[in-house]
Design goal:
With 516 residues, the chain is of the alpha/beta class. The chain is built from eleven helices and 28 strands. The N and C termini lie far apart (70 Å).
């Protein structure tokens, strides 16, 4: 009898270990901001994005990311409890509109036609969305398994013109084994520390139980690989030596070597196959593509039709993510284009990737010297300086870029930093003179909320041009510029991002932006 009981207990323990879950409670204490736009009610909520299906009600959406075991498959999402209340009043929620392209100094665009509210939804008594929480995407991030959860703090009952507000929700992400166990990889201590910092910034919860199989090995790993041409290799050597000297083992691999020794249908695939091998066998997690598009070819991927009908290659995305997302096949059906939904990639990076947009030995030396100065011996009087410059992105509906900058300030940046805030609204101090003066004064972090093209960045009624990037004279007080503007980092063109990085007398050490 005892033996039978022990067997039953053991069996239950085994079943419990196979099926598990994460239980989470989220509170939404703040109230929404509801404004009238074109005869409709528009809801915004702190920290939330907005739903994006044209014609359907535009409502706040919040995405959270959670670690699960590396071999886990999510089975379902269970709501354990929730608290909600009805917001007083009646509301006609704004229908999502297609994005409109604003006029540029070179071309006037027709505004996107108005999209009427979807009658099937706006006449319904069912809440929209029907579920206030859903599974978003799952993928592998550096071998870690991540699941995203979409939460809708507000549900709209269109036929009644009522809004339900979720104030608290407790849910369980349930999963079971189902993925192939990851093969143990080498990883160095610096690489492990970098991964932990990245995960802390992305995921809500972390546990060592969910870590992939990593074997810490600092002697045989190559953490950082510079891929470049044979002509540029010697010019990148000082950067390679410095990385190794500071504890990040680095190595240079030439494209000639890769093209001769790695399989692939084209040079892009040969480079990606080399990176897959380096990640698996060397423990590499940093890749620097040492050259512009003509030196290290980019993979052209497809996301959507942007419907601008202005540039012949406007839907051809230069996607260096191709070299970072190593799971699956970017051309699974073999017919192209790359990066289709039907392809087997999860779009989560498996290593850190960057590109030095250089086309000559002189530009390589400029790039390397900038990085060495920034990391080894920068001026000490600007390291806490941050520049926010933001314009009003759209007048109708009114979209003020300064609001997102203020949210970043309040949520993520400590009080020790020194801000320069140039806003079209409310400060009315955003213009060419103030921007150039602020950049030339020296900023460690620069955050631009405005429209752009590959030759220009909008700053309210003024513009920053390629020539302005060339004329910056901030010397060694250089930083990292991030822009939401379209095309600013179109490195297959002569882009403004490249001029910011390649200026030998100023500019910055890096530009994070969009290639389309």
């Amino acid at each position: 009898m005892k033996n039978s009981m022990y067997c039953c207990i053991l069996l239950l323990l085994c079943i419990t270990s196979l099926y598990a879950g994460i239980v989470e409670t989220i509170h939404f204490d703040e109230m929404p901001v509801i404004t009238r736009v074109k005869g409709y009610d528009m809801i915004t909520f702190p920290g939330a994005d907005l739903t994006a299906i044209p014609g359907n009600p535009q409502l706040p959406i919040i995405t959270k990311h959670y670690l699960i075991p590396s071999n886990a498959v999510v089975t379902d999402l269970e709501i354990i409890s929730q608290r909600s209340e009805r917001i007083e009043g009646t509301f006609d929620i704004f229908p999502v509109q297609k994005p409109s392209i604003l006029n540029t100094p070179f071309h006037d665009f027709e505004p996107a036609p108005w999209v009427n509210s979807n009658p099937a939804i706006y006449s319904s008594l069912k809440p929209y969305p029907e579920q206030c929480i859903e599974i978003g995407a799952t993928g592998n991030f550096f071998g870690y398994r991540i699941v995203s959860i979409n939460i809708y703090p507000f549900q709209y009952i269109p036929a009644e013109k009522k809004i339900n507000r979720i104030s608290e929700i407790t849910f369980s992400i349930n999963y079971k084994p189902g993925m192939k166990e990851t093969t143990a990889k080498k990883i160095s201590t610096p690489a492990r520390n970098a991964l932990n910092k990245a995960l802390q910034s992305i995921c809500e919860k972390q546990t060592v139980d969910y870590e992939p199989s990593y074997a810490v090995d600092g002697d045989s790993t190559i953490d950082y690989v510079i891929i470049t041409s044979s002509a540029f290799a010697s010019y990148f050597q000082p950067l390679c030596d410095w990385k190794t000297q500071k504890g990040v083992r680095a190595h240079i691999v030439t494209t000639d070597s890769i093209y001769s020794n790695c399989p692939g249908v084209d040079n892009q695939e040969r480079i990606r196959n080399f990176i897959i091998d380096a990640n698996a066998n060397w423990g590499t997690i940093w890749i620097l593509l040492g050259g512009d598009d003509n030196i290290i070819p980019s993979r052209i991927a497809y996301a959507m039709t942007c419907e601008a009908y202005y540039q012949i290659d406007e839907d051809s995305l230069r996607a260096d993510l191709y070299y970072a997302d190593l799971d699956g096949d970017w051309n699974y059906n073999g017919t192209g284009p790359f990066g289709e939904i039907a392809d087997s990639v999860d779009l989560y990076p498996d290593l850190f990737i960057g590109r030095a947009p250089v086309s000559s030995p002189t530009q390589v030396s400029t790039f390397v010297n900038k990085i060495l100065t920034y990391e080894k011996n920068p001026p000490l009087d600007y390291e806490l300086n941050i520049l926010f410059f933001a314009m009003v992105l759209w007048d109708d509906p009114y979209t003020n870029g300064a609001m997102s900058k203020e949210l970043i300030d309040s949520l993520y940046i400590s009080d020790k930093f020194i801000f320069t805030k140039l806003y079209e609204d409310p400060y009315n101090n955003l213009n060419w003179n103030t921007c150039m003066a602020a950049i030339n004064a020296g900023q460690n972090l620069l955050n631009h909320s405005g429209h752009a093209w590959y030759t220009v960045m909008s700053i309210g009624d003024d513009y920053l041009w390629i020539s302005d990037m060339d004329n910056l004279v901030n010397g060694d007080r250089q930083g990292i510029l991030y822009s939401i503007g379209c095309w600013a980092a179109a490195f297959d063109y002569n882009s403004i991002a490249e001029h910011f990085v390649n200026n030998p007398n100023g500019g910055g050490v890096a530009f994070i932006g969009n290639s389309r």
